Amino acid sequence: MRRRGDPSGRKAAGAVGYLVLARKWRPGRFADLVGQAHVARTLENAIRQERVAHAYLFSGPRGVGKTSAARILAAALNCEKGPTHEPCGTCPFCVEIAAGRSLDVLEIDGASNRGIDEVRDLRENVRYMASAGKRKVYIIDEVHMLTVEAFNALLKTLEEPPSHVLFVFATTRPTKVPATILSRVVRFDFRRIEAKAIVGRLQEILKAEKIEAEEKALHLVARAADGSMRDALSLLEQACSYGGGKLSAAETEEALGVVDEEHLFAISRASRESSPLLAMETVEEAMGRGRDASDFLLALEEHFRNLLVARVSREPGALLDAASETIARYQEEAALFEADDLIRMLTLLGEGGRDLRFSPKPRLVLEMLLLRLVRMDSTVSLGEILKKLGGAPASAPVPPEAIAAGRGRAAPAPKAPAAKAPAPSPTAPSAPAGKAPSAKSPPEPKSPRAEAPAPKRAAPPGETPAPPEADDGPGLFRSKWDEFLREFQKENAVLASLLRGSRPEKAGGGTLEIAFPRGAAFQLEQVLERENKRAVESAIESYFRTPRRLSAVLGTHAGDSEREKRAAVRDDPRIGRILDMLDGEIVD
Ligand SMILES: [Zn+2]
């Protein structure tokens, strides 16, 4: 059976050269395990209480500490001073285990030892005792790669494990591990490590190594590592060797090939100033430095997402993986944008990503996209006009969680309570007697096309509309949707603006499906994010007086937010007066 440390092994090849820091700083105690405190604490307690199980499954993404935790557990049990929850790290047992040389701790790569013969070998091996008084520990990495026959053979051992044996299985894909195995192991789920925790650990290591580094550089490394401590250390190594010892942000950008922050801010400035020239020059410079068009676009999407977070959140620091100086810069830049505009820009960039991936000329697609971005109409002037006229409702402060979801990246869990749904207004006229809305169980639809009668007139401005009675079919929701959004706007401006352009599509059986305009995938994704979805559902319940599970689809209709905006302008009496004075008209 081939072992992990073997130079002919799959994992050893390729990684050579960048393993110095990663190997040197492999955690040796549970306390050093970054970002997995829940696992560390439970294992420490198990050792203290002498209740260590016979088999564990460590699941989680690559590079987050599964194998390290397994080795620490092995050392904790076999340390000269052990069993102890804090292995000494210096006795011969600890040293051998850390180096992967211990005869009592066998690391097996499930990917290259998949078959029944290997597992038979293992079962044979299990019968031999460990050194006096020690536990024999088998660490099987990527255990989901084993064949069915191998699993069955393994199962026999797991059913009656010898008391001196401990199995630790590690996997990145727990769903591929058979249920018969899962039911015989104690399972721990390892988490992707937060960028902040990675930065903290890198700072400790660099301090000990006496290497100077800019905080910004460490954030670049942490972001590129995407939750993996192992990747972070090898990227750090790469950046250090490039920079000749000292770690600057500029050199780290160069070494890791990440998109230059200056370029990203140049693009947002170009869009503010409607400057196609600046956008084109920036692309030219970035491409000239060897950046890839699709990487550039991805970075740009994240950049605009950060701007949006900085624009609407009271504490963007909690939601952005960035150095403090970068966060301050985002706040400054974001103040120059309207949240609505940022959302539309994100939508545009999201659409562009799809075109770009399938295009033989990605740079051309990127340039066209940026030209559209800088030529985008702004809603700033309209908002400003209303504000100057006075009486425009101040936009409500927005809780950070309303926009907490990143695009596929792990966002830190929000700590503040969820956004409050609009409470029914006490001044709202009640529904006609005898037709009280049934709040809990909406009636089954009589006919799939059942439509509520259209409202005779729109509610006069300032008056809270009467909550309509519960009925199925989308008609009711459709006829009141705009009014609902206007009400919701007062409670949660960002969520309401994300919902703009959506329309109720289907209703029935306690659900409501809304369709977003084509191209509004970003808005759809944000609205369906757990906290947001809950807030919308609760607002729907209190406005329409019927609880609904919300679902959403991407429709085929064009976004009508522009049309609505113009209509809103036309209907605004103050604008009308100005237009009268100026003898002007609105041009569509
Ligand atoms: Zn020891």
Report on the architecture of this protein.
This protein is α/β, with parallel strands linked by helices and about 600 residues long. It has four domains: about 20-190, Rossmann fold, CATH 3.40.50; about 195-255, Helicase, Ruva Protein, domain 3 (Orthogonal Bundle); about 260-390, Zinc Finger, Delta Prime, domain 3 (Up-down Bundle), CATH 1.20.272; about 475-555, DnaA, N-terminal domain (GMP Synthetase, Chain A, domain 3), CATH 3.30.300.180. The chain has 24 helices and eight strands. It has helices at about 20-25, 35-50, 65-80, 90-100, 115-125, 150-160, 180, 195-210, 215-225, 230-245, 250-255, 260-270, 275-290, 295-310, 325-335, 340-355, 360-375, 380-390, 475-490, 495-500, 520-530, 530-545, 560-570, 575-580, and strands spanning about 55-60, 105-110, 135-140, 165-170, 185-190, 505-510, 510-515, 550-555. The strands form two sheets. Strands 2-3-4-1-5 form a five-stranded parallel beta sheet, covered by helices on one side. The protein has a three-stranded mixed beta sheet with strand order 6-7-8. Helix 8 crosses helix 9 (about 215-225) and helix 12 runs antiparallel to helix 13 (about 275-290). Mean pLDDT is about 75; it is low at about 1-20, about 390-470, about 560-570 and about 570-588. The site of zinc ion has 8 residues, from helix 4. Zinc ion binds near residues 80, 87, 91 and 94.
